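Q: Structure tokens for this one, please.
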Amino acid sequence: MMDTLHIIGGGLAGSEAAWQAAQAGIPVVIHEMRPKVETFAHKTGDLAEMVCSNSFRSDDSEQNAVGLLHWEMRQADGLIMRIADAHRLPAGGALAVDREAFSAAVTEAITAHPLIAVDHEEITALPDNGHWIIATGPLTSNTLGQAIQQETGTDRLAFFDAIAPIVYADTIDMSVAWAQSRYDKGETEEERKAYLNCPMNKDQYEVFIDALLAADKTEFHEGETAGYFDGCLPIEVMAERGRETLRHGPMKPVGLTNTHKPEEKAYAVVQLRRDNALGTLYNIVGFQTKMKYAAQTAVFKTIPGLENASFARLGGIHRNTFLNSPTLLDDRMRLRSRPNIRFAGQVTGVEGYVESAAMGLLAGRMAAAEIAGRDLPPPAPETATGALITHITGGAEAKTFQPMNVNFGLFPPVHGLKGGRRGRKDRYKAYTDRAKTLWTDWLDAQAVL
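A: Here is the predicted structure, written as tokens:
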């Protein structure tokens, strides 16, 4: 009888790993402690619940490393991408989804698969035998986290991952805000108007920054340090780095024209992105925060167009646990001290929904191959998925290892092309063309086994 693959964690990585293994004919049990054991960030017991945002970021597979990762996962029969495509929302050049419909559909697909079972008991210790993948993500339970810490012999690394607020659409003042994607990006009118924009003049921006800096913030627990991941900085931390920082980050006014006052150039712009298929919810783009709830309401209502806003969810902040993977994992994602255990997802030190799911896809395929008596090498480092696993299992400097999004800086260079900004378009196209060929070769090699 074929051995069973056990997966701890039913997030995006765990769900994708289970799907890939089951599609290869391997029986799978997902051990997901929710809803019996809750976390403060999750709201449901569904699998693949999206907590921080509803966006999978850029879907451009020719000029963007994230979009390339989307392409690779689609080519590999990725469940997460298939469900995301089925529940996508207008978001310019990005792939955004109705998050509730998305997680419900993933749950339905997983529970309907004849080779996958879901168990809702918490796993609190590292298993001594069997085939296991730990994909518990940034909210690994304290008990399991302590078991991992005891096994690895190192302190858990942590940063703080912040959640952006969500606004009810009918409370946004559309006589102030207007619908437009930056640079009118998108192939359809709906895509070109996927974001709502709230403009600020200089005085309004200064009032907002003053309120942001003065607001009450969440205190850290004893022993915790504020080591944020730069791709997910709370807005107040950005503001503390300089009063103009937000104007050059999530509040940059470029590529937008106020349809109410086209002759006026905004000093700063707050963007909101649709969060559900009905268009009743919008999240404030890039506005992760650790302000206390009362302070959030007061500060965000200083934004023109949001003076009377009501919030479906306010922002939050949580500790994010991840391994020092370059020292602990081999290139098959196995824990060196216990090779019957693989890790996948954000706990490995990748950052982002897509990156987490991609590591789940890889771990699921590698585990399935091992159970079937084969060895599956990682994909070439010139692919998006290969660049990520190469980075986390040896390419990164262990002493300074921090969570990483996929980006072309992780790829081996393509020689003979013009450098700098002017050569970027040709250079990125060369990266993606090369990656697609090598990824297809990697998939084809598995098909003939």
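A few notes: The two ends are 20 Å apart (CA to CA). The chain has a mean pLDDT of 91.
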